[in-house]
Every structure is written in C-alpha cells, then in structure tokens.
Amino acid sequence: MRILVASDKFKGSLTGREACEAIATGLARGLGDVAECGLLPVADGGEGMARAILDAKGGRWIEAAVSDPLGRPVTAGYALIDGGDTAVMEMAEASGLWRVAENQRDPWRASTFGTGELMRHAAGTGAKRILLGIGGSATNDGGAGMARALGWRFLDAEGLEIADLPARLDETVAIDASRAVSPPPLTVACDVANPLLGDDGCTRVYGPQKGVTPADLGAHEGRLRRLVSLLGGRGAAAADVPGAGAAGGLGFGCLCFAGGELRPGFDVVAGALDLPAAIAGADAVVTGEGRLDRQTLFGKAPAGVARLARSLGKPVFAFGGAVEPGATEALGEVFDGFAAIDRGALPLEASLERAAELLAATAAREARRFFGPEKPRPAGR
What we know:
38% helix, 18% strand, disordered C terminus, elongated, Glycerate kinase, domain 2
C-alpha cells in the first residue's frame, strides 16, 4: 500500500517535515511492510509556506538586507526553487507584525517597502515568477510601500516625490509609473476575501490588531480611499476584488502595482508541489496540523488535501495535536478517519517537547483502525 503523508506543521512543536516523518514512523510501526510512505509537507499559504515548499521541492534559501515595517534594516529570506526560476516568499518576512514590538506598532508609518525590496531582489537573481504569501502584516498601507520599492513615485502638489509613505499618503496628488519596474509574473496566496474598503475592509477588520484606534479608523480608511482615487478606474475595480484587503491592502497593491493574481493559498502551494499528481500516485493519504477544528475546514491545508484526495477517489485521514470536540461531525464529513495525539497525563509544555514521539505513537495506534480490516467507510461515499 502506497501512503502519501502530506501534513502541515504542528504549530509550536513540529515543522511540516517533522510531522510527516513522525506520522510515517508510526504508520510503519503499526502496519509493518504492507505500507510504503511518501512524504510531502504542505502548507496553506500562511506562515511557513516558503519553507514548506523549499523543503518539498529542494532549492536554496536566499537572504537579503531589506527594511522592516518601520524602515529599520533587517535580514529577510525567501526560497528559490525550480532551478532558480521561481521565488517563494512571504510578506511577513519583511513586513510582518512579528517584526514590531507591541508598544511600537504604528499603522501611520508601517510600510510594505521591505516586501517590495524582496521582490526586486528575487528579480535580480533571475527568478522568472514569484509566489507571494500575504498575511500577518504590520501594515495598513494598501501596498503603497511595496509600490515605491518597485519604482512608483508618489508626488505632492509641487511635483516632488514623497518618500515618507504611508505617513504622507494623504498629501499625494499624483502617482507616476514612468520609473516603475515590473516584477516577474506574480501569484499571490491569499486566504481572506475582504475587499479593501468598507465595513469588511482591511482597516476596520484587521486594523485594530496593528494599532489602529477607534478614533482613527476614519482617517486610515480615508487614506486608502485616496489611494484608490489616485489610481482611477483601475483602483476602483481592484478595491472590490475579494482579497484586496488582505495584509493591510497589500492584495490591492499587488493587483494595481505589480500585475498580481490573487489565488487561494492552498491552491498556490498545491500547484507548486504538484500535489494532485502525488495524491494520484498513492493508495491513501494522511494529513494533519496542530489542531483539527472548524477552522480546518475553511482554507486550511488538511482540508485542501482532503478535497484533492476525494476528487481523485483516495481515502484520506488526519492527525491533530488536538481535535475540537464540537467539530467531530463536520470533520467526519471531510476525513475518512481522524485522531488527536494522545498525550496521556503529560502537561501541555511537556507534550509539545515530545510531540514527534507522541505523534508517532498515535499514528502507530491508529494505523490498523485506519487501514486494517475494520477501517471506517470512506467519508461521503
């Protein structure tokens, strides 16, 4: 039996590769020689996407000197795969909320300039396309910082270039593209459907976690409306695209300034990994993540793996560090079987330290239930 183990990370304890290895170890222990496991770590387009794809595909991890959200010099990285033809990066590497201490968060100044610098660096290495995961941003600049890094010029009433973006975005009267450079074809992994503006837009939904106060919501929203207005019909159309509000409006910026295409994050990862072909070549699939719950079913990697597996007629099983009790019925509609890590009486901290051991033991215990004579009837079949 050929089993494809395609797990996401178990956040806080195991990388995707480590989780796959632990599951495969347990399955081999439980099934013996009847099973042959292939490993393909997956991700959903969020944190860890670049490393997961690099781990699965091979390639190089490249580091570059860029700016953090507040303009401070930092080193950020991205993956080069496919012989250097494809750059895989996450905006959070340069422009993420994790880069800024809570007491330093400043949505008036926080910029995606560093993400644009990463894109230019990748182009300079000869990359022919870029896969960009967006999310976890410290910014609410509509991608204006990224645009400036790509050579777009924001001009004031006297025709002088404004360097201090987004702080002086409301002083911009024109945007000049004459010196802009086009990055390689850009595919954006985006797992939210928020538009740029309005009650469901980036400012009102995500701004507070980045430091936007209730009193300032209108001003930040107005600043983005000005950006849309400066871009004319193209800006108005892009503002309403689902996902335009992702990462503080970076989705919008990628559409308008970089010719990007927004796609669900898991679909981007699955395409880069050639996951459908890997599933087609297996008899069964096993996936997992740190917690199986209702959120798993909405864009997370295990649900994406299950969707592909079921479309190809393959049974699919899942392991989680924990399983939400109230979600078992819904999870049973997606997976042919699932199980939580059995940590016994261990406290959480100890179980995290021993996660690989416990996951392997759980996989060994469940192997016969999943794949033996008493295996459950396939979900939805």
